[in-house]
Amino acid sequence: DVIIFAPDSVYDAVGDDAMWQGLTAIQEGRYYEVPFGPYNWMGFPPSVQRYLGMMWMAQLLYPETAQYDLYAEVANYFQL
């Protein structure tokens, strides 16, 4: 189980909130916040940064397949 939260959502609170503790992903620390900067990489506003979001999510969920340096890819993206 994995939970992915939008930026500026409840992400910061769920680890300490008793209401979330029944979820396996929370118990095992497999919950994440979508990166952002300057925009949300997965949501609003729609932008080409969703490309970065897909790379981030692929590496998060399938690290054995998505074997690339995400930081280098992001740096390269912003140099374009």
Outline the secondary-structure elements.
Blueprint lengths: L2 E3 L5 H4 L9 H4 L3 E3 L16 H12 L8 H10 L1
Parallel strand pairs: 1-2
What does this structure look like?
The structure is a single chain. By secondary structure, the chain is mainly alpha-helical. The protein folds into two domains: 1-33, no CATH class; 34-80, no CATH class. Helix content is 38%, strand content 8%. It has four helices and two strands. The protein has helices at residues 11-14, 24-27, 50-61, 70-79, and strands at residues 3-5, 31-33. Helix 3 (50-61) packs antiparallel against helix 4 (70-79). The mean pLDDT is 92. It comes from Xanthomonas citri pv. citri. This is ABC transporter substrate-binding protein. InterPro entries: ABC_transptr_periplasmic_BD (IPR002491). Residues 1-65 form the Fe/B12 periplasmic-binding domain.
Give a short summary of the structure.
This is ABC transporter substrate-binding protein. The chain is built from four helices and two strands, in the order βααβαα.
